[in-house]
């Protein structure tokens, strides 16, 4: 409602009065206008749960489940119910974990927001009551005072003007005056005054609500989702290529049985898809959101956590958002340069050079440092006060003390105060050094760690896809060995159980803002996956075609028994696949960076189960027979030996990919080889800008700005010229009649504009 509409017409339009609304009328209007809060989208719990099964990776697994029932029904064998049930269980396990973790994180954020629900004083039934701001409706009479956050858009009634801080809405740090009849906006903070107001808009109809609705209505696809899609597409394409090769080789060339070929295709589908990837990443962010809520931070969108971790430039409203919009004075940092003056005297002088009424933020914090704000004017008589202006960049006060002595005190920008003082060059250098030191501290960057858990897992997922597709492709096509799909399903289930714990792993944070480097993820995943696939092919060759293990470890030969080879191959694939996570989780040697206890326990438990299955299981439907503890130990030794080169490969890939990085290293401030982090260059550029601004020595503007010596020389020349101008002005004031008159006029605060200038003063 526009401020041009008189308040009386506002009452008529809203059908209310200064006595407020009745409770019954308030409830009726609440049904019409809705609660005074932003709309919150409610999600159907069932649809949210099923939504975790609706993504490209889950579609592939669902296709594998259908394939196990429909296409596997041939060759005189029944449908593959074991694989079908296993795939469905795996999908439900992943969805359940994701649903529970995100629900817990959402509940934590909701509880935190509920605790922050604002209260307000509202006039209902002729009585003032403190109620939740959410019950306010247009027509309510509210009372707002110093420190209150205005709960709704309103028009001010009779009373004294308010000072309102609208920094949260406009970014303006200075409070604005609001007079009776003017409007105030929801989300503003009252800085001075107390008054009653009539509510004219609530909820999404407020100025703040409309802005929030516009922001919320955007539906951009986040970077995190794009990365997931890219990695998922890579895995799907890899599997599709492997399946096409298998189909072409197995049926037209090798003339394999129909059902055996279907089983081999199921192995690629089930084992190659990192079905747990969306779950692991969403659980990781959900845990991060929950921990942030414990620190008082509200996460409205899970993927914002990942986006913030990759941020290297933050464009944000600072005042009142990143900062408290409140200045403070640190007394311990006060440096005293004059004799006979201590820190308390410096504070007192600064307070005297500040306003005691209608203060700005700087004056408020300085006067507030005194034990009693009245000390700023106690025992003195103010003669003249020079307010701050952007030209002189300082304030000044002329006063007379109790003994009749005149004093003049000024506070402001250090370079302006230095020009007013008489001091040696050494003293100036010392003060400039102090100023630079404080500036360096004020400009220091804020540090973001992002534990690299999500990046670790994506490399792991790509590696496993390549490892499964290539490894079993070689086994199926070169040796015509049909690996059981159900055993791959067991590997996937045990892997998921272990990998879920990575969301709570202890890893070193990235030393810099991190981002999704898909090139690094794919390159590392392909190389590590290829190595593990070749290691599996080597193991199969040694166990299936040679007596290597018999001669080396003294175990019985299993060359002629494909069922025992099935068990041995299952255990080798299970061990090396899960052990890979220890390589991808660390930036250094995997055995140097200690993993979290939960991850280690999960790995040992999963591999104990896998070892027991390989040692004891006799499953006819999988064509598998137990191999005994001797073979189990031999496979563990083989897996450990083939594990260590993974770290070397990881370092080699990182080194190969870092070639271009070195050419950009000098552009990073933290690694620059320029003197004093390039400070001389910045000062030289500033000096040239000042010369251009004042029309001084324009010819030097095109000179070399990037030499340290040149920069310091430019700066010193500028400082010398400024000092000369200040000295000329001071001498003019002392030794010329006109200058002396201007000095007296300024000191006494006289108005001489009306005096005829032809007269002598």
TrEMBL record:
<keyword id="KW-0375">Hydrogen ion transport</keyword>
<dbReference type="InterPro" id="IPR023299">
    <property type="entry name" value="ATPase_P-typ_cyto_dom_N"/>
</dbReference>
<feature type="transmembrane region" description="Helical">
    <location>
        <begin position="522"/>
        <end position="543"/>
    </location>
</feature>
<keyword id="KW-0547">Nucleotide-binding</keyword>
<dbReference type="GO" id="GO:0008553">
    <property type="term" value="F:P-type proton-exporting transporter activity"/>
</dbReference>
<dbReference type="InterPro" id="IPR006534">
    <property type="entry name" value="P-type_ATPase_IIIA"/>
</dbReference>
<dbReference type="InterPro" id="IPR023298">
    <property type="entry name" value="ATPase_P-typ_TM_dom_sf"/>
</dbReference>
<feature type="domain" description="Cation-transporting P-type ATPase N-terminal">
    <location>
        <begin position="1"/>
        <end position="73"/>
    </location>
</feature>
<keyword id="KW-0813">Transport</keyword>
<dbReference type="Pfam" id="PF00690">
    <property type="entry name" value="Cation_ATPase_N"/>
</dbReference>
<feature type="transmembrane region" description="Helical">
    <location>
        <begin position="226"/>
        <end position="253"/>
    </location>
</feature>
<keyword id="KW-1278">Translocase</keyword>
<dbReference type="GO" id="GO:0120029">
    <property type="term" value="P:proton export across plasma membrane"/>
</dbReference>
<dbReference type="InterPro" id="IPR001757">
    <property type="entry name" value="P_typ_ATPase"/>
</dbReference>
<keyword id="KW-0472">Membrane</keyword>
<dbReference type="InterPro" id="IPR004014">
    <property type="entry name" value="ATPase_P-typ_cation-transptr_N"/>
</dbReference>
<dbReference type="GO" id="GO:0005524">
    <property type="term" value="F:ATP binding"/>
</dbReference>
<feature type="transmembrane region" description="Helical">
    <location>
        <begin position="84"/>
        <end position="100"/>
    </location>
</feature>
<dbReference type="InterPro" id="IPR008250">
    <property type="entry name" value="ATPase_P-typ_transduc_dom_A_sf"/>
</dbReference>
<keyword id="KW-0460">Magnesium</keyword>
<dbReference type="Pfam" id="PF00122">
    <property type="entry name" value="E1-E2_ATPase"/>
</dbReference>
<feature type="transmembrane region" description="Helical">
    <location>
        <begin position="565"/>
        <end position="584"/>
    </location>
</feature>
<feature type="transmembrane region" description="Helical">
    <location>
        <begin position="596"/>
        <end position="617"/>
    </location>
</feature>
<feature type="transmembrane region" description="Helical">
    <location>
        <begin position="457"/>
        <end position="477"/>
    </location>
</feature>
<keyword id="KW-0067">ATP-binding</keyword>
<keyword id="KW-0406">Ion transport</keyword>
<dbReference type="InterPro" id="IPR059000">
    <property type="entry name" value="ATPase_P-type_domA"/>
</dbReference>
<dbReference type="InterPro" id="IPR018303">
    <property type="entry name" value="ATPase_P-typ_P_site"/>
</dbReference>
<keyword id="KW-1133">Transmembrane helix</keyword>
<dbReference type="GO" id="GO:0016887">
    <property type="term" value="F:ATP hydrolysis activity"/>
</dbReference>
<feature type="transmembrane region" description="Helical">
    <location>
        <begin position="629"/>
        <end position="646"/>
    </location>
</feature>
<feature type="transmembrane region" description="Helical">
    <location>
        <begin position="265"/>
        <end position="287"/>
    </location>
</feature>
<dbReference type="GO" id="GO:0005886">
    <property type="term" value="C:plasma membrane"/>
</dbReference>
<feature type="transmembrane region" description="Helical">
    <location>
        <begin position="49"/>
        <end position="72"/>
    </location>
</feature>
<keyword id="KW-0812">Transmembrane</keyword>
<comment type="similarity">
    <text>Belongs to the cation transport ATPase (P-type) (TC 3.A.3) family. Type IIIA subfamily.</text>
</comment>
<protein>
    <recommendedName>
        <fullName>Plasma membrane ATPase</fullName>
        <ecNumber>7.1.2.1</ecNumber>
    </recommendedName>
</protein>
<dbReference type="InterPro" id="IPR023214">
    <property type="entry name" value="HAD_sf"/>
</dbReference>
């Amino acid at each position: 409602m526009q401020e041009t509409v008189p308040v009386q017409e506002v009452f008529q339009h809203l059908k209310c009065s200064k006595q407020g609304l009745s409770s019954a009328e308030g409830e009726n209007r609440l049904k019409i206008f809705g609660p005074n809060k932003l709309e919150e989208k409610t999600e159907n719990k069932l649809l949210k749960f099923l939504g975790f099964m609706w993504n490209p990776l889950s579609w592939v697994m669902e296709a594998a489940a259908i394939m196990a029932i429909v296409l596997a029904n041939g060759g005189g064998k029944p449908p593959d119910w074991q694989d079908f049930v296993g795939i469905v269980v795996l999908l439900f396990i992943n969805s359940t974990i994701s649903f529970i973790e995100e629900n817990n994180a959402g509940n934590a954020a909701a509880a935190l927001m509920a605790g922050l629900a604002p209260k307000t004083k509202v006039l209902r039934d002729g009585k003032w009551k403190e109620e939740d701001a959410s019950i306010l409706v247009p027509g309510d009479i509210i009372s707002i005072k110093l420190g209150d956050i205005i709960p709704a858009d309103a028009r001010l009634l009779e009373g004294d003007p308010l000072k309102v801080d609208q920094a949260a809405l406009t970014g303006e740090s200075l409070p604005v005056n609001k007079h009776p009849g003017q409007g105030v906006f929801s989300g503003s903070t009252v800085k001075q005054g107390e008054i009653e107001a009539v509510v004219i808009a609530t909820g999404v109809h407020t100025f703040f609500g409309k802005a929030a609705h516009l922001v919320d209505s955007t539906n951009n696809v986040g970077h995190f989702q794009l990365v997931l899609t890219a990695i998922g597409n890579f895995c799907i394409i890899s599997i599709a290529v492997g399946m096409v090769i298998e189909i072409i080789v197995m049926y037209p060339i090798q003339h394999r049985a129909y059902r055996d070929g279907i089983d081999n295709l199921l192995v690629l589908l089930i084992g190659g898809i990192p079905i747990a990837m969306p779950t692991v990443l969403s659980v990781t962010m959900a845990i991060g959101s929950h921990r942030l809520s414990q620190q008082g931070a509200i996460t409205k969108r899970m993927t914002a956590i990942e986006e913030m971790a990759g941020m290297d430039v933050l464009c944000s409203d600072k005042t009142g958002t990143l900062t408290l919009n409140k200045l403070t004075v640190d007394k311990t940092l006060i440096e005293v340069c004059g004799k006979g003056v201590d820190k308390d005297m410096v504070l007192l002088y600064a307070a005297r050079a500040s306003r005691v009424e209608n203060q700005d933020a700087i004056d408020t914090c300085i006067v507030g440092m005194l034990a009693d704000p009245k000390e700023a004017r106690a025992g003195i008589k103010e003669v003249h006060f020079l307010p701050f202006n952007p030209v002189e960049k300082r304030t000044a006060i002329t006063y007379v003390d109790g003994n009749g002595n005149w004093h003049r005190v000024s506070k402001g920008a250090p370079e302006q105060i230095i020009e007013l003082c008489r001091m040696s060059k050494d003293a100036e250098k010392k003060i400039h050094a102090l100023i630079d030191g404080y500036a360096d501290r004020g400009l220091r960057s804020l540090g973001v760690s992002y534990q690299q858990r999500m990046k670790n897992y994506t490399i792991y997922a790509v590696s496993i896809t390549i490892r499964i597709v290539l490894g079993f492709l070689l086994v199926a096509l070169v040796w015509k060995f049909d690996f059981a799909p159900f055993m791959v399903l067991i590997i996937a289930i045990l892997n998921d159980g272990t990998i879920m714990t990575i969301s709570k792993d202890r890893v070193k944070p990235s030393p810099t803002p991190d981002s999704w480097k898909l090139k690094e993820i794919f390159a590392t995943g392909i190389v590590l996956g290829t190595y593990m696939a070749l290691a599996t092919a080597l193991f199969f060759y040694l166990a299936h075609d040679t007596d290597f293990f018999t001669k080396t470890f003294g175990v019985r030969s299993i060359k002629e028994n494909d069922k025992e080879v099935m068990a041995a191959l299952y255990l080798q694939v299970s061990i090396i696949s899960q052990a890979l996570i220890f390589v991808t989780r660390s930036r250094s040697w995997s055995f140097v960076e200690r993993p979290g206890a939960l991850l280690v326990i999960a790995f040992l438990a999963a591999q104990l189960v896998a070892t027991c299955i390989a040692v004891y299981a006799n499953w006819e439907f999988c064509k598998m027979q137990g191999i005994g503890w001797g073979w189990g130990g031999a496979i563990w030794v083989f897996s450990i030996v083939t594990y260590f080169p993974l770290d070397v490969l990881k370092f080699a890939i990182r080194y190969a990919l870092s070639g271009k990085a070195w050419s950009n290293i000098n552009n990073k401030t933290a690694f620059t080889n320029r003197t004093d982090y390039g400070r001389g260059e910045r000062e030289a550029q500033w000096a040239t800008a000042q010369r251009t601004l004042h029309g001084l020595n324009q010819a030097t503007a095109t000179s070399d700005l990037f030499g340290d010596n040149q920069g310091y020389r430019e700066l010193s020349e500028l400082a010398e010229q400024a000092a000369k101008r200040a000295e000329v002005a001071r001498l003019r004031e002392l030794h010329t009649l006109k200058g002396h008159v201007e000095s007296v006029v300024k000191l006494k605060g006289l108005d001489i504009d009306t005096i005829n200038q032809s007269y002598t003063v």
